[in-house]
Amino acid sequence: MRYPLKGGDAMARILRTLALSTLCLSVSFCSAGASAAQDPRQDRDEGLDRPYQAARKRMVKRQIRARGVKDPAVLRAMERVERHRLVPKTRRHSAYADGPLPIGHGQTISQPYIVALMTERLRLSPGDRVLEVGTGSGYQAAVLAEIVSEVFSIEIYRELHERAKENLKALGYETIRLRHGDGARGWKEEAPFDAIIVTCAASHIPPALVEQLKPGGRICIPVGAPFGVQRLLLVEKGDGSDAKVRTRTITEVRFVPLLAPRDLKKRSRPPKDPEEREDPQEKKPGEEARPASP
Amino acid sequence: MTGGPLPLWRTGGAVFCISAATIALEIVLLRIFALLWWHHFAHLVIGTGLLGLGASGSALALGGRRFVKRPAVWMALFALAVALFTVAAQGLAGAIAFEPVQLPVDAQPAALATHFLLVLGPFLLAGLVVGLALRTSGREAPRIYAFNLVGSAVGAPLATLLLWLLPPHLLASGLGLLGLASAALLLAGEEHRRARRVLLGPGAAIVLLAGAATLLQPPPAPSPYKDLSQIMATGRARLLASRTSPLGRIAAVESPLIRYAPGRSLTDPGTELPPQVGLYLDGGFLGAVTRLEGDVAELGHLSRSLSSLPFELRSGGRALILGAGGGADILAALSAGMEAHAVEMNRDVLRLMEGPLAEFSGGLFRRPGVRIDPGEARGFLRRTEARFDLVALPPLDAFGTVAVSGFAPGESPLYTVEALGEMLDALRPGGVLALSRWLRQPARDGIRLLATAIAALEARGVTRPGDHLLAARDWSQLVIVAGREPFNADEIAATEAFLDRLGFDAVWLPGMAPGRANQVHILEEPVYHRAATALLGRDREAFLEEYPFDVRPVRDDRPFFFHTLKWASLPVLGRQLGGSDPLLGEWSTLLLLWSAGQCVLFAALLLFLPLLLARWRRRRRMAREEQRSGAASRGSCSPIPAHALGHFAALGIGYMTVEMSLLQRLTLFLAQPIYAATLVIGLLLLASGAGSLVAGRMGRGPEGASRALRWILLLSFLHAVLLPLLLEPLRGAPLAARALWAALLLLPLGFVMGIPFPLALRALHERHPGAIPRAWSANGFASVLATSVAAILALAAGYRAVALLGVAAYAGAYRSATPGNAGSEASAQDAGPPAC
Q1: Amino acid A143: pLDDT
Q2: Residue B64: its chain A contacts at CB < 8 A?
Q3: Does B257 sit within 8 Å of A182, measured CB to CB?
Q4: Whole-angstrom Cα distance, residue B64 to residue B58?
Q5: ipTM exceeding 0.85?
Q6: Residues in chain B with pLDDT < 70?
Q7: Which 8-state DSSP code applies to residue A106?
């Protein structure tokens, strides 16, 4: 009786495959090691940043502007901040991909679009003071620092805090004030703030943060799975005659109830904002842009 | 002599040990992976591992006569390898980081493949032991199969029992001893003295050394994305106590960072919450225990949260809390001046609350006015005679936990029309039922709970459910209050005042103006209010039909509350999301499809491809022989008849689907998931083992199998159609009586289900002995595929459909086994000489 594969042949093939796999793995480990050994500032000096610049521009164009983020200050900031220098070195190749990335301790650097959307929703002005709860990689703080004069950021994980401190300094963001500690208590000494970004969802909105917000200020909190669908929660503190605190939920997916899926398709981007209708420049023919939030 | 038949007790004993180890390992690995990751990923990995059982048939066919010449030595070698894999695999798996949560952005192929192989290994090798035993046992095949079934029947309860005593990673190492015992039995005879010396001694030494090395290592670290890992990584948390049971590992953690107050009003002044201890189940946040030092009234935040709405309406009297957890709802009831009677299924939670956390919680569970009933909520509802002023069903999961883990297509027996009906029955006149759920966007769970509550009210004869309902929400939570009687104007006014004072939104109040909705916690559309209006009005059916998610009321037959995907909506939602998460976090549905897909792929590669190759080679050889002899010749081997493969596959599908539907229905009936699973699986396998033994004494003709299959068809059909009716009269009976009744219903079916497979195996052995590995493979793949298909079918059409699929599969098996039919064994007699 013959067998489909003789024992000796099979073993030889398995060994060959193993050897090849080992070689490939070694090569990838070596290249990862080499990349880890490089100094980020050295990259910059040697002009190795050019491919990343192009990727960043593409990111802004395809992931952010095309989805309806329009604030020129936000777009400019997203185009300037070198995200690849704030992600773990082994993840640099996907720094400008359309998704979040792990940064350790079960934390992530948010999807670029979410960062841009959150920043836009805060309606920032250059003189604003902004508090960030959850520094993480430092990327969001850097984006904020491109727009406003004062950024304060708190991180509970010491290792992330130290890493962000070092990276932000290397990138020249010297004015961002960083603190290691419990963000739910806010930063009382520096309060009040015009805006607060909370990058970690909690079971409730910490009252200390609402207290430290100026009347008319906004808190922005992403809620949802780190690698899944996220919604944004905006907390708005009224001023003047209406001092009520309200929340506003902005979902990435929207649909109008009592409409069938076929109708959904037609209305997937309801033209609520007149400005939106006037800015079709980035929308390619046949490309269905994601719905913008109010 | 090394190739002769072994005494039955040795082969049977070895098969018994390996089968017990295999099923125990499956249960233990599920626990280990649920601890490391999340339970639906664990199911996927184990489902993959079980493919090894199917692959073992193909491996046996590939090994061919080599294995058959020295079966005892080969089986002993495989058994030793099972032992080695069992003790070492989890250590290796723990050393290779794999993050299922990161799969959307990072495929991690190397880690995935390693885990896949490490889990596949022991099941493949165990399948080789059993398959080879069946292949070489000749007429004893039914008895060997009986040993296989009885071993499995013993292994399942054994693992469950031991999980109370040992952490799963230690237990996995211990299971390696069963592999060693199996090898020792196989090589026990004098004729295997040399093999014993060469194989067993060094093999046992290696296994024991690997076991020792694994035990010396720290247990594998859970995913850093788990809540427990994250709080511990802050360096500001301390593990106070932990307990392990088959329900999971529960840990109590003290940290100033734990502040759990979902539904807290934004108007609540910025006071600090009292200190809390976090409870974590398998590393996922379960809830918090709040420190209580004096009077409950000092916990002011309780009355300023959305979940206190029902207590605003009913103060004083008696409340039933379905899920005591860390005691948050008990505190709310006490602060409303009510007596609290709480039910809690996880006894480890109770032990923690009455032990290490008793002082911290101010002895809450032993306070005057508090009564705790260990057990499952529906079981309690059915047997209690007491009536309550308020029945509260808090969210059974903590806020935010499902966001990371995704939703499993798991059953939620408390969120069904029947369950809510039983809760309404437990109310006194004037009593209210309080339900709450976290809000997911796009809106679906909350709407579905509302639809289910409306259906439950209507099932209790309420004609205008809108008058019996109040619903309110904030940004994270929906609270529904359902009354046995209509709410009066005072109660509606009190609710409005409560919502206005604390800044919550009305979703439904009798006579509510649409402009009142969506004022404080603003959604892009007032989706919940519109849904409530549609569900309570004439547009209900159109709304349910057109809504992009399945928000129809959930019933016991299809108790998948969280499975809300409508496949037809997916293309649109997928486009909107730009591919970022087209399943909206319901990954487990995808994993289920993945599981089924990979099973089909494996079956195609390992079962059908080798068959086609063998057929092609045989034809080529026959053509060569024809050329040589100049005449048509019959080859020395023939393929396994396709209908025989179909017969074995149908038996596998039938057995697994009937078992799964019985498991679901009896778990609900017994109201103790762990005991129910142990009882159902154990008894069914035991009865099948007895059936298999009896099959060994039956005649050689196909009549025996046909008769058994006729009985299976009759009994499984009766189970599919009548089981809920048969269980109904004893729903409120004590557990022992229910268990006895369940056993009486199970045993006859289990017994006859054990007969056809060994008879078919024996028949195949007489005509095509070489085809047994393929048949084993077909049965294995079909069984694994059936579990995925049954789960998908249950999601789509309910468990009655699963039971009927089982009946259909057995009908197919009957057709291929009945004399006179095209696919019968009788016609297989003409299929030619032994198979390749």
Answers
A1: 97
A2: 1, 3
A3: yes
A4: 10
A5: no
A6: 1-5, 39-43, 45-46, 90, 93-94, 104, 269-270, 397-410, 572-588, 630-641, 700-701, 818-836
A7: T
Name the B residues in 415-434 with CB < 8 Å from any A CB: none
Range B596-600, long-range pairs (CB < 8 A, 24+ positions): B596/B785, B596/B788, B596/B789, B596/B792, B598/B48, B598/B51, B599/B47, B599/B51, B599/B54, B599/B781, B599/B784, B599/B785, B599/B788, B600/B785
Alpha-carbon gap, residue B552 to B545, rounded angstroms = 9
Which residue among B102, B266, B530 places its CB closest to the CB of A102? B102
Three-state SS at A152:
strand
Nearest to A156 among B234, B580, B584 (CB): B234
Of A158, A219, A231, the C-alpha closest to A186 is: A219
- Six-digit token string for A207: 């009252």
| Beta-carbon separation of A254 and B442 below 8 A | yes
| CB neighbours of residue B212 within 10 Å | 11
Helix (H) or strand (E) holding B390: strand B388-393
Structure tokens, A114: 């979410």
Chain B residues whose beta carbon lies within 8 Å of the beta carbon of residue A3: 62, 64
Say how many residues make up chain B.
Answer: 836
Which pLDDT value is given to residue B827?
38
Q: Which residues are within 8 A (CB) of B422 and not within 5 positions of it... i.e. 6 or more apart?
A: B378, B381, B382
pLDDT of residue B533: 96
B-chain CB neighbours of A25 within 8 Å are 110
Per 3-state DSSP, chain A is made up of helix, strand and coil in percentages (nearest 5) of: 40, 20, 40
Chain B residues in contact with A255 by the CB 8 A cut-off are 442, 548, 573
Q: Hey, are the CB atoms on B62 and A4 less than 8 Å from each other? A: yes
Q: Which residues 6+ apart lie within 8 Å of B745 measured at CB? A: B719, B723, B726, B727
Give pLDDT tens digits for B196-250.
888 888 999 998 888 888 778 777 788 888 889 989 998 999 999 999 888 888 9
Q: How crowded is residue A90: how many other Cβ atoms within 10 Å of its Cβ?
A: 12
Q: On the CB side of B649, how many CA atoms lie within 13 Å of its CA? A: 16
Q: What angle do CA B397, B471, B486 make, to 5 degrees?
A: 125
Q: Which residue of A210, A258, A288 is the best one to mutate when testing the B interface, meaning the one whose CB has the most B CBs within 10 A? A: A258
* Chain A CB contacts of B395 below 8 Å: none
Spatial strand order of the sheet with B427-438 comes to B370-374, B339-344, B318-322, B388-393, B427-438, B477-483, B469-473, B505-508
How far from each other are the two terminal CA atoms of chain B, in whole angstroms?
A: 25
Active site residue A110: yes
Helix (H, G, I), strand (E, B) or coil at A230: strand
Which parts of chain A have pLDDT scores under 50?
1-43, 45-46, 253-294
Taking a C-beta distance cutoff of 8 angstroms, is the pair B507, B534 a contact?
Answer: no
Residue A20 is predicted with a pLDDT of 39
- Start-to-end CA distance of chain A, whole Å, equals 73
Q: Which of the following is catalytic: A94, A110, A241, A268?
A: A110
Q: What is the per-residue pLDDT for A40?
A: 42
Specify the pLDDT at position A36. Answer: 35
Tell me how far apart the alpha carbons of residues A146 and A83 are, in angstroms, rounded to a whole number.
13
Given this model, what pLDDT does residue A225 score?
62
Closest chain B residue to A208, measured at CA: B270
Long-range contacts of A33-41 (CB under 8 A, 24+ apart): A35/A89, A35/A90, A35/A92, A36/A89, A36/A90, A38/A89, A40/A85, A40/A167, A40/A170, A41/A170
Interface of B with A in 258-277 (CB under 8 A): 259-264, 266-271
Residue given tokens 């079980």 in the structure block:
B50
pLDDT at B436: 93
Number of neighbouring beta carbons within 10 Å of residue B621: 16
* B503 touching chain A per CB within 8 A: yes
B538 touching chain A per CB within 8 A: no
